[in-house]
Write a structure and sequence with these properties.
By secondary structure, this protein is an all-alpha fold. Helices cover about 65% and strands about 0% of the residues. It has two domains: about 25-65; about 80-170, no CATH class. This is NADH dehydrogenase [ubiquinone] 1 beta subcomplex subunit 10.
């Protein structure tokens, strides 16, 4: 780069920023509106929000660790208690989702073991295979043949029929 610069081509910016001079003596109404907004609306809302945040810091709420109370089973509901029916149905749906996730986790563990062990998978992953067989059999016994539209009542009837068949087979 040459030492002699062309000062006309590359002008140096001014060292001080010029201050704009007022052209009128009337104050700007925007400044008053901003100040009024700040004191009337923004300050109370900010105060309340900071107060709530201080209160919430004392009690941490983790939504992903939410625990629902166990509700009575459908067989324990009094006849005609529709609220109990609804709660039992919601509990059954949650239980079904949990059981589906358990089966999926065990299946993923078995797949990871098979991937890790390679040709020795039948020897080294026998526990995982047995566990998957048990879990899928239990899931099939409870929820199998219910279909997508299965509910707590049909599941309870299926369980009742299975228990009656087991009693007949035992005799």
């Amino acid at each position: 780069m040459p030492e002699d610069h062309d000062w006309e081509a590359y002008k140096v910016p001014p060292t001080r920023t010029p201050v704009s001079e007022r052209t009128t003596s009337v104050p700007n109404p925007v400044n008053y509106l901003q100040t009024a907004f700040s004191y009337v609306l923004d300050a109370p809302v900010t105060f309340v929000r900071e107060w709530i945040e201080r209160f919430q810091k004392k009690e941490k709420f983790y939504y992903y660790h939410q625990k629902f109370r166990r509700v009575p089973d459908l067989s324990e509901c009094v006849e005609g208690d529709y609220l109990c029916y609804y709660e039992a149905e919601a509990q059954w749906r949650r239980d079904r989702m949990v059981d589906q996730e358990i089966v999926e986790i065990i299946r993923e563990r078995l797949a990871a073991c098979k991937q890790r062990e390679g040709p020795n998978q039948f020897q080294n992953c026998a526990k995982e295979m047995e566990l998957l067989a048990q879990v899928t059999k239990a899931y099939q016994d409870r929820y199998g043949d219910l279909g997508f539209h299965g509910n707590a009542r049909t599941c309870l009837m299926k369980q009742k029929h299975r228990m009656m068949e087991e009693r007949k087979a035992a005799q």
